[in-house]
Amino acid sequence: MRLTKKGKQTAALLGFVFPALAFYAAFMLAPAFGGAAYSLTNWNGLNPAYGWVGFANYAEALTDDPAFLRSLAFTAKFVAFMVVLQNAIAIVLAVFVEAMGRSKAWFRTIFFMPNMLSMIIGGFMWLFIFTKVSSYLVEKAGMAFLDRSWIGDPSYSFYAIVIVSLWGGVGYLMVIYIAALQGVPRSLKEAAAIDGAGAWQTFRRITLPMIYPALTIGVFLTLNSSFKAFDAVYALTGGGPGRATQVVALNIFEEAFGFTNRYGYASAKAMILFLIIFLITIVQLRFMKTREVEA
Amino acid sequence: MSRRYGLAGRAGAALIFASLVVAAAFTLFPIYMGVLNSLKTEGEMLTDILAFPSKLQFGNFADAFEKTDYLRSLGNTVVVAAVGLTGIILFAAMAGYKMSRTPGKLSGFLFGLFVLSMLIPFHSIMITLVRISKDLAVQGSTVGLGFIYIGLGVSMAIFLYHGFVKSIPRELDEAAVVDGCGELRLFFVVVFPLLLPVTATIAILNLLWMWNDFLLPLLMLTDSKDYTLLLSTNMLFGEYNNDWAAILASLVLAMLPVIVLYLLLQKYILNGIADGAIKS
């Protein structure tokens, strides 16, 4: 009797899980394991025959592919800027917006709005700003500081990409930080004020430690999304001029679906990207989680 | 003493308000410029990019509407999102609920299997995904693209459902079983309606993701008659590289559905975003 009940339970479990598992296995698990396997081959997408090459793809990507290494370095720099700026700006906006009275809802709505849009749309719109509007402002309004080749010169287009990514991403984190701020007990802040703490001290000593768990989430989300950045760069510079602003995701995309069609090699690059994101986020979560306990 | 504090407080508040206004202006600037210039002729745009159009004209919109095959693109996007969303919610709710309710190793293993992939970036699977999609004949169709989204989206949804089900008292299921309610009926009639809060969060997060996703449709939809809004907009951008009047109009048209949805449902969207992020 007990056995049949257990058997029934298992059957019901499998029945309920099956539809999700079928789609998941076909479009997520199979490609994930397949990608890992293909990264060890010289499969090129056109030729049906391919063979195992061991870790040769990995070795080539890490030692003999300057464009890939440059895209890694470019992405790392981009990630560093994003992690710091996106979280700092989002926290400041959250604190400021929370300090407002009736205008709070308005600001929240406006700051989050870019997150509703695809970065392809946002990127094209900013391209218009960076090319047409900025040159107009330089000529007609004398705003000389805008007189740069925002898209054509890689040292400026890096900042163009950062600006557009911040524009598109800050609101999302702001919403998370606002939710965290609302969880800080008013009594704590009042107690600090009675003890003579100023606004900055209260923020530094009370608010910031209390929202530390949200900071863990914010940094995690920024790391994850910035390492995978694609849309904004695709729309703004397409990785150019040349490959000067190519992020890793774009490099992989080009390797696989551009001219060479080296699927196996591109899979190895994709695995490297996965391992980097995996390791860094694990370290980040470990590190920040332990600090959370202390705070 | 107290007066000085009040004065400093008021000056501080004014400063904060002013900086928020500047930030808001910066946020809205590209959207405003896009809308403004989409209403001008190319000539007007060249003479004064900041000025209001001398007279409203919607020629650019008619142009963009036709070149992006707007209604068809919009329809395609709706099909993709509807197929994906229905599958994700239905299948993930079933799986998440049952795994949450069933103790044991198998259940734990299956849950672990679903959660496992949440860290894998899309770029690590996309190459093989293209090949598998060709083999399974889902490449090149909007419904097929919806199917792929189901496979990619169920993980996170299962994770959220799995957690939420724990907050629903078990006695409820048991009472229904005693009443002679079958497993499936129990789920659809009793449990599923109770999941509504988390279903709303999942629906919002996934809808936004699918609606705004660019790379997967780019890889999967090969025929321009299947293009989603983003693909059509991207195509128009490629073909009319410097015709900003038409491009901006097409961007505004592509934004329109999302902005309208946002202004109507913003309370739910903002709550859903905060909820989803904190729980996962």
Description:
The complex is a heterodimer of chains A (295) and B (280). By secondary structure, chain A is mainly α. Chain A has one domain (56-294): Orthogonal Bundle (MetI-like fold). Chain A is built from twelve helices and no strands. The longest helix of chain A is centred in the first third of the chain and has 37 residues, at 2-38. Chain B starts with a helix and ends with a helix. The longest helix of chain B has 37 residues, at 2-38. Chain B folds into two domains: 2-57; 62-279, MetI-like fold, CATH 1.10.3720.10. Chain B is built from 13 helices and no strands. By secondary structure, chain B is mainly alpha-helical. Chain B is globular and about 75 Å long. Classes of the chains: A mainly alpha (295), B mainly alpha (280).
Short key terms for the protein model shown above:
heterodimer; A: 295 residues; mainly alpha; MetI-like fold; 12 helices; globular; B: 280 residues; 2 domains; 80% helix
Multimeric organization: heterodimer
Helix content of chain A: over 70%
Secondary-structure element series of chain A: HHHHHHHHHHHH
Query: Can you tell me the CATH superfamily of chain A?
Result: MetI-like
* CATH class wording of the largest domain in chain B: Mainly Alpha
Shape of chain B: globular
> How many distinct folded domains of chain A?
1
Strand content of chain A: under 5%
Q: Remind me, CATH topology of chain A?
A: MetI-like fold
Average pLDDT, all residues of chain B: 86
The major beta sheet of chain B can be summarized as: none
Largest β sheet strand count, sense and barrel closure of chain A:
none
